[in-house]
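A.,

Following up on our hallway conversation. Structure tokens first:
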């Protein structure tokens, strides 16, 4: 037998052709010459087959091209390499489909153009419409939120939202924020992640969390509820004095629901959980720290002049130690005077 095309004697693959001539006269892959891609000018998402994707342009292009090409099943061990060249006007891609037919390598080249069109995506149009499904209300008990807390809360919420968006939740966004009543409100587009964020803030700062809901209508055939999560931060903060069960403490640090404190009469440090401190009373902040003149001192006791009454009073030292200055820092809480815990020489 000989090939009707090249005349060579040998094995005829199909239709009177040797495999070499069969490969030359057939194409094994097919794809579009033009791909129209819709891009949102605000968030950079791309629409493909009626759904919006966010991600890197090159990755999305690869994904779309791979999905829009036909490759003959006769071809084994197939591969596809895509190389795109972006210019201001257009993107041209070279697609090479490769594989093996009966062990003979086959390679086919295709060129295609990507045309970009602009359109506001579903998420951005919701965002511009002020859409929200949840409100995170953050307040503090019996006080305003501090600047540090506000900064911390803002970066936590923005970080969580960003993180969830990277993980694929492109429908999540912060619609608005509003400073009010000494606290802050965050409006979020989705209630489930809002609940997760609310819990994280609560776990970090302690305090209390409450939720309420309101039916706001239908979305994709489902009832939608607008959730409000109220997180009330505890009344105490770092560097504030508190009383608990007839003892007095200075708060050294707060991390999650662990609060490191120092007891003022012994200068001993302990850690409380936020639940324990719910019963604590906040006495005040750094403003309560005063200087007092040292009159005399022994190993266990110090005699000072009360800066308010000018009376000389005895204060027990938390441990045997010596103050080598003529002034010491004190804190007056209720009727008690404590030496302010500072690094001091031991006796
Ligand atoms: Zn031939
Ligand atoms: Zn968008």
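Then the amino acids I'd put at each of the 347 positions:
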């Amino acid at each position: 037998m000989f090939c009707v095309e090249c005349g060579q004697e040998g094995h005829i693959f199909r239709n009177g052709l040797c495999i070499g001539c069969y490969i030359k006269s057939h194409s094994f892959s097919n794809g579009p010459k033009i791909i129209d891609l819709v891009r949102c000018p605000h968030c950079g998402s791309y629409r493909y087959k009626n759904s919006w994707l966010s991600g890197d342009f090159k990755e999305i292009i690869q994904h779309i091209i791979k999905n829009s090409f036909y490759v003959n099943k006769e071809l084994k061990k197939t591969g596809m390499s895509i190389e795109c060249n972006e210019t201001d006007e257009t993107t041209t891609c070279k697609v090479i489909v490769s594989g093996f037919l009966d062990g003979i390598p086959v390679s086919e080249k295709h060129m295609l153009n990507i045309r970009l069109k602009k359109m506001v995506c579903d998420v951005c149009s919701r965002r511009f419409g002020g859409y929200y499904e949840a409100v995170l209300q953050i307040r503090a008990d019996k006080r305003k939120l501090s600047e540090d807390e506000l900064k911390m809360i803002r970066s936590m919420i923005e970080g969580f939202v960003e993180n969830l968006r990277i993980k694929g939740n492109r429908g999540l966004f912060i619609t608005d924020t509003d400073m009010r009543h000494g606290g802050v409100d965050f409006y979020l587009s989705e209630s489930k992640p809002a609940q997760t964020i609310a819990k994280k803030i609560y776990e970090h700062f302690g305090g209390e969390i409450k939720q309420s809901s309101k039916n706001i209508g239908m979305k994709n055939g489902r009832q939608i509820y607008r959730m409000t999560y109220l997180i009330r931060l505890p009344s105490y903060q770092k560097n504030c004095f508190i009383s608990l069960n007839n003892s007095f403490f200075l708060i050294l640090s707060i991390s999650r629901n662990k609060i490191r404190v120092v007891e003022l009469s012994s200068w001993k440090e302990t850690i409380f959980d936020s639940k324990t401190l719910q019963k604590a009373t906040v006495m005040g902040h750094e403003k309560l720290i005063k200087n007092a003149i040292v009159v005399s001192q022994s190993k266990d006791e110090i005699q000072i002049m009360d800066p308010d009454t000018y009376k000389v009073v005895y204060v027990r030292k938390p441990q045997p130690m010596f103050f080598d200055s003529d002034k010491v820092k004190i804190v007056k809480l209720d009727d008690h005077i404590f030496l302010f815990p500072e690094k001091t020489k031991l006796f």
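Residues 19-118 form one domain. Curious whether your intuition agrees with the design.

B.
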